[in-house]
Amino acid sequence: MNGIADWGRVEFTSVRELRGPLAVIDQVEGVGWDEFVLLAADGGPQRQGLVLEVDRGTAVVQVLQDTSGMDPARLRATFTGAPLRVPVGPGWLGRVCDGRGEPLDGGPPVVGAVTSAVGGNPVNPVLREPPAEPVLTGVSAVDALTTLVRGQKLPVFSAAGLPHLELAAQIAAQSTAGGEPFCVVFAAMGVTHADAGFIRDALEERSSSGELVLLLNTADDPVIERILTPRIALTVAENLAYTGGRHVLVVMTDMTSYAEALREVSAARGEIPARRAYPGYLYSDLASLYERCGRVRGLPGSVTVLPVLTMPAGDITHPVPDLTGYITEGQIVLSRHLHARGVYPPVDALSSLSRLMRKGAGPGRTRDDHLDVAAQLLSALARARQVKELADLVGQAALTPTDRSYLAFDEAFAQGLVHQRRDESHTLEQTLERAWQVLLTLPRSQLTMLPAEFVDAHRPPESG
Questions:
Q1: How confident is the model at residue 43, as a pLDDT?
Q2: What mean pLDDT comes out for the span 314-342?
Q3: 389: buried, middle or exposed (CB in 10 Å: 19+, 13-18, 0-12)?
Q4: CA 97 to each of CA 215, 241, 291: distance values in angstroms, whole numbers, following the listed order
């Protein structure tokens, strides 16, 4: 018999072929897209899969573990009649798991009173609340100039050799939500074992305090698991936020590894490629992840997403950063030039932007002078870049005293505001006071974007 029904499940033995991470099963009936599948041979280990497509009685299933050693003739595929679900709840806090949610910390399997579909549930746009109130990261370059707002999606654009993993771990370790219940879900995809060990060490304190969920998919894990990892992370985060009442920060690194896994599966399916051989649905697939953040009217908590991605060859027009930029609300860009100067984190302030910063910073949210200080810093930094280019042409001796003050400002900005240790956390007060010290390297006449009362509070009029 080809099909056997049992308690709502249907078992088929007509596995035609195994193609990389895919299993092709013929003569199926009543099978739906995204359905959860269990595959096993007589006496062999059970493996899991998800239905990618069904057409004319043929189902294509992506196997979450490696298919090596499996014999199609001996396989039984059990279709469960439901999408993949995972237990959700506070039982995830403090746990370290692999990309499929299986424990890596030696503890028992994660359990929860309820389960949720990994694909998530669409939120009615009318019920979405605008992001508001900040998530303070303790990183001055972020908090001062590209403030992260609860419910926002704000990516980090980096390149090979830059410390994006260190920055992601530091933000995950230090972030707070103004004393309100807060936790972090960290999803690492395609990382080396050394990087996985670094992440565990860097986040050990937050994990031991029960404020962290850590999912680690390493480079030698099955590629399909990499596609599942961020979806499990977001499913867990949604429950912790909207049921548990926490403000949840979801850090996902590296989204380029995720996109490459998607490309590999697409190639195995024989799909027609689009830009750089990525599937044509890359945009909608990324959106299905990024758009799971936000605040929902009538529900407590919030989900904030910080995706980290490396731009191949530093190309910001590459499909992954390009499409990510269309979906998200700004970006934090890391700079090779600042990294070469020994500045950490090497955030390029003029290329970075938080489009929702005005929703989460300023009077009543951070500090009254925050937005004015940020605007003045960026204006002065842009002028300093122009002066540096002029100095390269005519020499510093030909510059006016005001122009030379901008050169001093540029150095003070990099070393006095942006630079901090990897284990150093700055409060917002410390960050803004550092910003003021940098601004005061300029003549008072150049602080035209700051109200006089703010300037007077930090430098009396007669000293200008």
A1: 67
A2: 95
A3: exposed
A4: 5, 20, 24
Tokens of 432: 């803004």
Nearest partner of 413 among 395, 387, 383, 437, judged by Cα: 437
Q: 334, 324, 286, 328: which is closest to 159 by C-alpha?
A: 334
Q: Where are the beta strands (DSSP E) in 219-351?
A: 247-253, 295-296, 302-310, 330-333
pTM: 0.91
Euclidean distance between CA atoms 343 and 346, whole angstroms: 5
Q: What share of the chain is helix, strand, coil (3-state, %, to 5)?
A: 40, 25, 35
How deeply is 164 buried, as exposed, middle or buried, from its count of CB atoms within 10 A (0-12, 13-18, 19+)?
buried
Q: Which amino acid appears at position 191 of this protein?
A: V
Residue for token digits 């798991």?
97
Tens digit of each residue's pLDDT (9 = 90 or more) over 208-262: 999 999 999 999 988 888 999 999 999 999 999 999 999 999 999 999 999 999 9
Closest by Cα among 122, 129, 157 to 356: 129
